[in-house]
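Lab meeting notes turned into a lecture example. A postdoc, R.K., suggested we walk through two folding results consecutively so the class can see how the record format repeats. The first protein's sequence and structure tokens come next.
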Amino acid sequence: MSTATEQTAPPTPQSDEPTKGLSQGRIVARKFFGHTAAVASIVVFLLVVIISVTSQGLGPIPGWWKWTYEQTPPLVNGGAPTWVLPFGFGEHPFGQDRVGRDLFAMTMRGTQISLFIMVTIGVLAGVVGIIVGSLAGFFRGWVEAVLMRITDVFIVIPTLIAAAIVGKAGGQGGVLLLGVFLGLVTWMLLARLVRAEFLSLREREFVDAARIAGASNSRIIFKHILPNTVGVITVNLTLLMSAAILTETALSYLGLGVRQPDISLGSLISINQAAFSTRPWLFWWPGLFIVIICLCINFIGDGLRDAFDPRQKKFSLRAIRRLSATTGAADAAAGSGRTVPVTGAESDDPVTARRHDGELYRGSPSAGGQNTRLELDDDGEPGRRD
């Protein structure tokens, strides 16, 4: 009778050794800053924010750019961009419109307004969605029924029609009112996600322990459950803000969003749409900044999702190659029936490999593997032995 050792293979070749002894915050930060696209997106997004704010100023504080978005200097070079790569900016690097306004100044002002509306929508929708979802998921019963029916009413309203109505009303009342109105029609998805998280977390042992200790409902919600939903909230808020800037752009393009004298990236495209064939640069720069902002927000959300979700594992080609070499060495020795000690892909834990019924089992207890003793019966079927 022969015996074979079976070990459950770890889910990935990457070990959890580097994160041992670290707090949850440090683990999340390490995973996030290991996401190259997310880190690059943060850098680009911060550059866009800094340039847009400092070039045109904020409120009474003037900017460093020589022109404002309202000034109409004489046309230079027929209004075409004076930017000569790489550093020859000239008087109007982005060009001018038909009346002579500097397009760089208008694009930076439009970026400011679009970012302000995006943040307003994100904050308002986040607050409403978190409150509604947490109350519905924690208290359940009639509270959940009432709040979810209100959410369902908002969900079935066509988003485009609702956005057009509130955009028209908000555009007449200023940029802040537009952001508030749009925030009131975009919170429903976040509320449902937060509710689902609360329904799951309220049944956990740490919540029961808090109740036994005499904690109030508000303390359980804000101190124990809500911090465990930060990952879901953060990721979905970034995606919500990315969709918000596209909604504002679409409304402004249709004339239902930001109105003059204020401008946004969408309104810039709408104002200059008649000059698309003769002055295409009037579309290049506002469109480019819309794409940059949306891509940066989406990549940041991607990085946050990977950082907060423990099931997300970073693919490592080096680890795959090491595991392949390990498998080859174990395959060569498995025919003799002997155990081959090999090194883990990312740690020094010994990994045991042995072939059984034509399959190779490998893993280590520290990587999640479990040792199970098997013995072969006379008919060749494996039987478990305690």
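The second example is placed directly after the first for contrast:
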Amino acid sequence: MSIHMSYLKREHARLDAEIERASRERRPDEILIARLKTLKLAVKDQMAACRESSGDSRAA
């Protein structure tokens, strides 16, 4: 696994944890959560692009 892919997986997990934390707040910041979800989706897209370029077609 490439260093870049490792970074993307860690970033995806970090964003997921941050979304969970923000969602558990007494008054969740819906705008922040939406931004985090957008970033998480962008990271997932980058992971898919890396897989395609390396010839690995496994799902995320």
